[in-house]
Amino acid sequence: GDSVTQTEGQVTISENGFLRINCTYSATSIAYPTLFWYVQYPGEGLQLLLKVFTAGQKGSSRGFEATYNKETTSFHLQKASVQESDSAVYYCALVSAQ
Fold first, then answer.
1. What is the value of pTM for the model shown?
2. What are the backbone dihedrals phi and psi of residue 50, each rounded to the nearest 5 degrees, phi first?
3. CB-CB neighbours of 74 under 10 Å
4. Does residue 47 contact residue 40 with C-beta atoms inside 8 Å?
5. What CATH number is given to the structural domain containing 67?
6. Domains identified in the chain, total number
7. Residue limits of the Ig-like domain (predicted)?
8. What is the pLDDT of residues 81-97, one digit of tens each?
């Protein structure tokens, strides 16, 4: 079946550091899946951070970005200059087209 694999979940970072969380996916569908990043801040519910429908497209939100790379089947989340308030749990997810 379809799956995603990410290297980290809970991320604690120092001010002005660089954040990168690796996410790779496997999809059995012929069509490319829609890829998502969710974030959960301490004491809060899950929130959608960004989503991308099309291979080669870059999604961005709140200073975070992720590029849908079909060659490497990856959707890595990055932020160049993180703040202490970005400390949270991050989740990569996919939904396959039927």
1. 0.86
2. -160, 160
3. 17
4. yes
5. 2.60.40.10
6. 1
7. 1-98
8. 888 888 888 999 998 86
